[in-house]
Amino acid sequence: MTRRAPAHPDPTRSDIGLTFFSTWHVGTPERQRAAVAAIAHAWESRPWPHEGLLGYHVYAGADGATLMHHSQWRDEESYQDFFAHGRDARNDEIDAAVPGIERLGLTKSELYRSVTPGSGGPAPEAFVTVHVDFDGPDAGRQRKWVDTVLDALATGPVPGLVSAHFHLSTDGTQVVNYAEWETAEAHQRALEAPGAGIGTLSEEWRRVREFPGIVEGRAVRRWRREFGVVPG
Fold first, then answer.
1. What pLDDT, on a 0 to 100 scale, did the predictor assign at position 119?
2. Cβ neighbours of residue 206 under 8 Å, at least 6 residues apart?
């Protein structure tokens, strides 16, 4: 049985082995809304596809042109089984309703560390992903970059930040920070701070900004959660 999830996902669940982030380009706000409706129908009209899928959530980009899919899996074997026995039927229905969707890529990742400075406060209204790409695979460098960011975050509060969950791509080339913010306005104010982005002009944040081996053009996208489904 498939049921609608009442809230955004918990990235820290102990039974999550892998978290997938997938981005689609749909082009316009109208197509964005139509795609969300088609995705919801394709999932809610079918039984839950696999016991190894723990949750599936869809977010609409603030740009009016993109969607993000955030799915939580027990392990890689569960995903591969779903991929072979159920994914295509859902995508075929969605593509029939909204032709021309461009699938930009899928990042398979494992949660490494989290920080929750705003826990206990207002529920988040805005969600932000930051994709940081490195110039080659290196699991140690992935962890070192996250540790450097968390050292910087520990030097002072970031107003409006509820939580940040740092995921390491399984191929060793990327970190995805899935962050929850009180509001979109709070995130925008943080971007406009004197540190040329999130953070301050401190030595700790300088180390983040000058961390070696990062490919220029990290992708920062802001989302609102549209819906999610979980096993019934």
1. 75
2. none
Determine the Cα–Cα distance for residues 41 and 72; give it in Å rounded to an integer. Answer: 20
pLDDT at 219: 85
3-state secondary structure of 209: helix
Q: Is 113 exposed, middle or buried (0-12, 13-18, 19+ CB in 10 A)?
A: middle
In one letter, which amino acid is 148? T
45, two tokens: 């009209």
Confidence check: pLDDT of 86 > 70: no
Strands 219-231 and 174-181: unpaired
Please, are residues 75 and 16 in contact by the beta-carbon 8 Å criterion?
no
Helix (H, G, I), strand (E, B) or coil at 119: coil
Tell me whether strands 18-25 and 161-169 are parallel, antiparallel or unpaired.
unpaired
Contact (CB, 8 A) for 220 and 161: no
pTM of the model: 0.94
Q: Are 99 and 106 in contact (CB under 8 A)?
A: no
Per this entry, what is the length of the chain? 232
Per-residue tokens: 30: 């109208």
